Amino acid sequence: MNVVRPPCRHPARCTGGFTLIEMVVTVAIVALLASIALPMAELAVQRDKEQELRLALRQIREGIDAYKKAVDEGRIPKGADESGYPKTLEVLVEGVPDPKDPDKKKKIYFLRRIPRDPLARDDGTVSTADTWGKRSYASPPDAPEEGDDVYDVYTRAEGRGLNGVPYRQW
């Protein structure tokens, strides 16, 4: 069944365009969808940064643990007054001479690079090792301080993660 329209008396009004109400409704719907999508995008960015932080912390801590294990196995000499942990994070990348190598040319490496703290607020002029907070073996866990060695690392970022735990406690 065909619908027959009456002839249009005002040709300028019968061009088939959108009315003002249709345009306002369309803009309102788009604004509503954008207001829902923006927080979701911010949440996804935060989740990505937190995942990158977990990975970076794991890599550095595994390097520190491997260094300590090498000291405990006698592959790295240590003094009687030393803890056996690396003096700096850079040592993990630069490597230490392997005492088992007769030519003294080989080194033992623990990290390929020190990852930058993804939550650090810096302009890129700070070295990657300085973006991290460092805890020495002699400092207490609830008040970490730098010292003669690097026992652990933590982020200096304020705030809490999506899991509710402060970033510094990760």
Q: Give start-end ranges of low-pLDDT stretches.
A: none
> How many strand segments?
4
Structural class: mainly alpha
| Mean pLDDT rating | 87
Helix content: 25-40%
The side-by-side strand order for the widest beta sheet comes to: 1-2
Rg calculated over all Cα atoms = 30 Å
The first-to-last residue Cα distance is: 70 Å
Report the principal-axis shape.
elongated
Binned strand content: 5-15%
Q: Describe the biggest sheet?
A: 2 strands, antiparallel
- Tally of individual helices: 2
Element string (H = helix, E = strand): HHEEEE
Written overview of the protein:
This protein has 170 residues and is mainly α. The chain contains 2 helices and 4 strands, in the order H-H-E-E-E-E. It has helices at residues 20-72, 90-94, and strands at residues 96-97, 107-108, 132-135, 152-155. Strands 1-2 form a two-stranded antiparallel sheet. Strands 3-4 form a two-stranded antiparallel sheet. The longest helix has 53 residues, at 20-72. The radius of gyration is 30 Å and the shape is elongated. The N and C termini lie far apart (70 Å).
